Amino acid sequence: MSDRETRCNAGGQFMDRGRMNQNGVVQPLLTDLYQITMAYAYWKSGKTDDHSVFDLFFRSNPFHGEFTIFAGLDECLRFLESFHYSESDIEYLRRTLPEGTENEFFDYLGDLTAKDVTLHAIDEGTVAFPRVPIIKVEGPLIIAQLLETTLLTLVNYASLMATNAARYRMVAGKHVNLLEFGLRRAQGPDGGLSASKYSYTGEC
């Protein structure tokens, strides 16, 4: 694995999301409630600073193909740089987590950044294969856990689309112009959130 690394800027300061030109949907609450409850369990058991290493990989190639094009790394790096729970995020979590959750846990989340996380990855646009790590996340257990769902959603869809485009290019050859009409077939303008919303409509 080639070393493409990033750390949050010195001192753990996070950058304004708007200035980073990232989709406003991509923020710490773009995750599963499961991840927050796992974080609470780590906090309760004093394991927040345990060193951890998480590998991100996939189990099979899309479209029954023989390769995958890795994509989404840039969005992952931006997410790590800006990771921080806003005051409104914390208030939402206070209303969502079970009654009796200690106030100190919310104070802890309010100060949390990804400054101690190191991310290693293969280069974006690289051919990748099943069960071989494409991203490795190292850092304190609690923050690595909280990054999981968001990193998956940023990589999975991006890699699917990049792989699909590469397959079209291989068939069309180098001298044919290819145009995309992704908006017509995507899962709504915000992908995963649309899937969650309409799954709820269907009584999940």
Automatic annotation (TrEMBL):
<keyword id="KW-0597">Phosphoprotein</keyword>
<feature type="domain" description="Nicotinate phosphoribosyltransferase N-terminal">
    <location>
        <begin position="29"/>
        <end position="156"/>
    </location>
</feature>
<dbReference type="InterPro" id="IPR007229">
    <property type="entry name" value="Nic_PRibTrfase-Fam"/>
</dbReference>
<dbReference type="Pfam" id="PF17767">
    <property type="entry name" value="NAPRTase_N"/>
</dbReference>
<comment type="pathway">
    <text>Cofactor biosynthesis; NAD(+) biosynthesis; nicotinate D-ribonucleotide from nicotinate: step 1/1.</text>
</comment>
<dbReference type="InterPro" id="IPR036068">
    <property type="entry name" value="Nicotinate_pribotase-like_C"/>
</dbReference>
<dbReference type="GO" id="GO:0034355">
    <property type="term" value="P:NAD+ biosynthetic process via the salvage pathway"/>
</dbReference>
<dbReference type="GO" id="GO:0005829">
    <property type="term" value="C:cytosol"/>
</dbReference>
<comment type="similarity">
    <text>Belongs to the NAPRTase family.</text>
</comment>
<dbReference type="InterPro" id="IPR040727">
    <property type="entry name" value="NAPRTase_N"/>
</dbReference>
<keyword id="KW-0662">Pyridine nucleotide biosynthesis</keyword>
<protein>
    <recommendedName>
        <fullName>nicotinate phosphoribosyltransferase</fullName>
        <ecNumber>6.3.4.21</ecNumber>
    </recommendedName>
</protein>
<dbReference type="GO" id="GO:0004516">
    <property type="term" value="F:nicotinate phosphoribosyltransferase activity"/>
</dbReference>
<keyword id="KW-0436">Ligase</keyword>
